[in-house]
Amino acid sequence: MKPKDEGKIAEIYAATLVLVKEQGLAGITMSMIAKKAGFATGTVYIYFANKEELIVKLFEKCSTDYANDYFAGYDPSSPFKVAFHTIWMNMLRYSIEHFDELVFIEQCFHSPFITDETRKATKERLLPWRELIERGKKEKLIKQLDASWIMLFVRGSVRDLVKHCTYNQLKITDTFKESLFEMCWDGIKD
Amino acid sequence: MKPKDEGKIAEIYAATLVLVKEQGLAGITMSMIAKKAGFATGTVYIYFANKEELIVKLFEKCSTDYANDYFAGYDPSSPFKVAFHTIWMNMLRYSIEHFDELVFIEQCFHSPFITDETRKATKERLLPWRELIERGKKEKLIKQLDASWIMLFVRGSVRDLVKHCTYNQLKITDTFKESLFEMCWDGIKD
DNA sequence: AAGATAGATGAATAATTATTCAGCTAAAAG
DNA sequence: CTTTTAGCTGAATAATTATTCATCTATCTT
After folding, report:
1. 3-class secondary-structure state, position A186
2. Three-class secondary structure of residue A189 per DSSP
3. What is the distance in angstroms between the Cα of A108 and the nearest Cα belonging to chain B?
4. Interatomic distance B1 CA / D1 C1' (Å)
5. Which mean pLDDT values do the consecutive 10-residue runs of chain B (190 residues) have?
6. Structural domains in chain B plus CATH codes
């Protein structure tokens, strides 16, 4: 028997992400995905039962990758600002390097494919980030605002900046990154 | 002869916005729109040649309304921080009161319906906002960063916060608004 | 090396959705 | 009040897209 080529799943995912970035979730079809990935339409159905399963599985993959990346090198015992900086930079790096995944996740959030439970699970993966913010509040280093607001303030500003830079093909330098960090930090610090 | 009921256009628009907010651009059909608006599918085609025209016209309407609202009560001769506050509050108010339009515009940006020219035109409507930021830089009141970055920093943070509050049905109080404003302001001030 | 099994193909079919249109209705004009 | 015109309807049709499947192919097993 011929073994399943698991590498094809990655190719299907990659093709889907590129197409969604270019056309949006509303603009993609299964045959477009197959063509972009370089094989026949029917092949996609060997790996995924249908379009919905493909989208949902890709969403879950992106969502967990995203959360893992968030906490790379994060040491909860380090000083607050250091820890915050680590996660902030991870967030920025992920947004830049996996821009198509960022767009895909965002589009899925407003689509019939993703259920409320999935949405909730996605948020829960960022719990350590929330806990860090709470710690910053306790240590009186940042403003005494709801942790969600702080998190959204930070993420929202990073996201829109990365979008702008990506669409306008602007190189994001280290100096630029530190300037952005400073904006975020100044915004939340006590 | 029977006159065209121009009010129907508004009903079609409203139905479309609600559906896109609930289902995303990928999840809506012409019959869903007609049903939601309360009349027959064919009627939609009396007012719009096809689905694309409907989406594009609605996008343009939302986009101009948005830009107009941005500058309501804006007096360029007032002190920088006052002017900034006015526009910032307009942005927030619009995002809250016209949340479905916000979602719709965002979805359209990543869709096959909107062309690059339309995207560009949308940005150009916010020119006075850019000019205000440049003025703030000249007056050394805000950081010497690219005006686009400042604008995106502000808009991104506001957008994600409004999304969160809307989806979680949190009431946005005046105190809350001023707290958010302060975060933004602290982030960009020199 | 031959048989067996599961992957790969892409044209055929099914399902969904966009769009049309023949008949119907309401309002304006005369 | 009648005519006329254009809006309205929703079932019918066209177009698009998802999904299947008969056939072919590659590779594993013995």
Report:
1. helix
2. strand
3. 8
4. 16
5. 86 98 94 97 97 97 94 97 97 96 93 90 94 98 96 94 91 93 96
6. 1-48 (1.10.10.60), 51-188 (1.10.357.10)
